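[Archive record]
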Amino acid sequence: MSYEFIRHVLQYTTLINYIILIFWFLMFVFARPFLKHIHTQWFNLSDSQFDTINYAGIAIYKILVIVFNLVPLLALYIVGHP
């Protein structure tokens, strides 16, 4: 695999993951009653449990995107083409 190919893959995966993250956040903010209704049909969750699970999920997802996509991409940009 070439340097350019890896850089392009990391760019697209970072973009796609941030789109998913923003979509999740927007759904949680603007469609919270709908999401809560769907999830309470499957699981017996209180409001605080539902909020905690979503905030923790968003935080963990964001950290994983940064560690596995953004940091390697920035490292490739800093190092430059070998």
Observations:
- The mean pLDDT is 95.
- The two ends are 13 Å apart (CA to CA).
- The CA atoms of residues 15 and 69 lie 9 Å apart.
